[in-house]
Design a protein that fits this description.
The protein is α/β, with parallel strands linked by helices. It has helices spanning about 1-15, 60-70, 85-90, 110-120, 160-170, 210-215, 250-255, 270-280, 295-305, 325-340; strands at about 20-30, 40-45, 50, 75-80, 100-105, 125-135, 145-150, 150-155, 175-180, 185-195, 200, 220-225, 240-245, 260-265, 285-290. The chain is built from ten helices and 15 strands. The protein has a five-stranded antiparallel β-sheet with strand order 3-2-1-5-4, with helices on both faces. A five-stranded antiparallel β-sheet has the order 8-7-6-10-9, with helices on both faces. The protein has a five-stranded parallel β-sheet with strand order 13-12-11-14-15, with helices on both faces.
C-alpha cells in the first residue's frame, strides 16, 4: 500500500510542476514473476522513475515505451512473455519464467482518478479501480476508468464500467473481466484495494520500536496503546499512525478491533497482559499475537478461565526463525502476520511444490 501511495503522490507532484509522465501498471501475470497485478511504475519525461514492475529486467523497455507514447498520447498494452528459452528472453537477464502484461498510458489520462484513488487509500476506504485495457465498442476507449469505494462511486464514469467496479469490489474479485456492451466488448482490469492493515500493539517497550518500523515500512497503519504517556511519542515511534494513552481495557475499546485487524500484546507486564487479553479475546480480529513463552500464555488464559482460546492465539508470536534480540523478533512477527494475511503457512519456498503466486493472465 505504501508503494501505490508513493506513485500517486508523485503523479500529483509532477502534474503541479507541469511535467509530462507515463504510468505503467501490471494488469496480469502467468508463471514465475517478480511482481503481481497492480504493481506500478511512473515514468517522468526526465529523471528517475517511481515504483517497480520487476527485478529490474523490464523497467528499461517500459520506460522507453512510456516516453515514446507521451507524444502520441495513445495507451499501449504490452505483453512481455519471458517463458521461451531463447536469446531474446535471456537478454532480459531474468531469473524467472513468466509472462507479464503491462498497460502503459499517459499519466495525465489517469490524473483525476489518481487523486481520488489516493484520497481513498489514505482514508482507509476499500475501493476498486476498473480500467479499460482494450475494446471493440465505440462507447469506451482504452484508459477509460471508474473508481468505486466502500462509500460509493467517485467522479464521472461510464455506467457499465462503474457497475463492473462495484460488483468486483462487493465480491473482492480483482483481475481481468470481460465487459459486454451493445456494440462490442471491452477487456477491463479491476483492481480491488483493501484498506491498509491496521495493527494494534499493546505496550510501548523498547522492543516495540523495530516492530513499528517494520510494520510501517509495509505500509500498515500502526496504533500503540500504553499507560505510560511519556513513551507514546513520534520521536520514539516515527512510523506510528496513532497513540492511545489508556488502561488496557479502555485502550482496546478506543481502537475498536474489527475482523480484518491485527493485534499484538507485548507489554512485558503479566497483569497488564492479562487485562489486554481479557479485552481482546472476545473481540473480532484476523490475528492476535502474544509475546512470551507459551506456558506463560497458558497461565494467563487459565486465570481468565479461557484455556480453550489458546488455539486462536499466535503464542509465542512470530515465525520460528531462531530470532534473537528485538530486531529479529520484530521481523519474525511481521513475517508471521504477512503469512496470515496471505493465507500461507510460511516455511521454505524450496519445499513448495506449487507456484509461489496464482496465475492471473488469461
Amino acid at each position: 500500500m505504501s508503494e501505490i501511495t508513493d506513485v500517486l503522490a508523485a503523479i500529483d507532484a509532477l502534474h503541479l510542476r507541469g511535467e509530462r509522465m507515463a504510468l505503467a501498471t501490471v494488469v496480469s501475470t502467468r508463471g514465475s514473476t517478480y511482481r503481481r497485478a497492480g504493481a506500478r511504475l511512473l515514468v517522468p519525461e526526465r529523471g528517475a522513475s517511481v515504483g517497480n514492475l520487476s527485478g529490474g529486467c523490464l523497467e528499461g523497455d517500459v520506460e522507453r515505451i512510456g516516453r515514446e507514447l507521451l507524444d502520441s498520447g495513445v495507451p499501449r498494452l504490452e505483453l512481455f512473455d519471458l517463458r521461451a528459452e531463447d536469446d531474446a528472453v535471456w537478454g532480459y537477464g531474468l531469473g524467472c519464467n513468466g509472462a507479464i502484461e503491462v498497460f502503459i498510458e499517459p499519466a495525465e489520462q489517469a490524473l483525476a482518478t489518481a487523486s481520488a484513488l489516493r484520497l481513498a487509500v489514505e482514508e482507509g476506504r476499500a475501493c476498486c479501480l476498473a480500467t479499460v485495457l482494450s475494446t471493440s465498442s465505440a462507447q469506451v476507449a482504452p484508459g477509460d476508468r471508474a473508481l468505486v469505494t466502500s462509500d460509493g462511486p467517485m467522479g464521472d464514469a461510464n455506467p457499465d464500467i462503474r457497475d463492473l467496479a462495484a460488483a468486483a469490489l462487493a465480491a473482492d474479485d480483482g483481475g481481468i473481466h470481460s465487459l459486454h456492451m451493445p456494440d462490442g466488448e471491452a477487456r477491463v482490469f479491476a483492481e480491488v484495494l483493501q484498506p491498509a492493515l491496521r495493527l494494534l500493539i499493546c505496550g510501548a517497550g523498547h522492543d516495540v520500536v523495530p516492530l513499528v518500523t517494520g510494520a510501517a515500512g509495509m505500509g500498515w497503519r500502526v496504533t500503540i496503546t500504553d499507560v505510560r504517556r511519556q513513551l507514546l511519542t513520534h520521536d520514539r515511534f516515527p512510523g506510528a499512525t496513532d497513540f492511545i494513552h489508556a488502561p488496557p481495557g479502555e485502550g482496546v475499546a478506543a481502537f475498536a478491533p474489527g475482523e480484518r485487524d491485527y493485534l499484538v500484546v507485548m507489554s512485558h507486564n503479566y497483569y497488564k497482559d492479562l487485562e489486554y487479553l481479557r479485552a481482546l479475546l472476545d473481540a473480532p480480529f484476523a490475528y492476535l499475537g502474544q509475546l512470551g513463552p507459551r506456558l506463560r500464555t497458558q497461565q494467563l488464559l487459565r486465570e481468565l478461565d479461557r484455556s480453550d482460546a489458546i488455539d486462536r492465539l499466535h503464542a509465542p508470536a512470530g515465525l520460528d526463525l531462531g530470532a534473537e534480540g528485538p530486531g529479529e523478533v520484530a521481523w519474525a512477527i511481521v513475517a508471521e502476520m504477512l503469512a496470515v494475511r496471505r493465507g500461507r503457512d510460511a516455511g521454505f519456498l524450496r519445499d513448495r511444490h506449487a507456484p509461489i503466486h496464482e496465475a492471473s493472465l488469461e
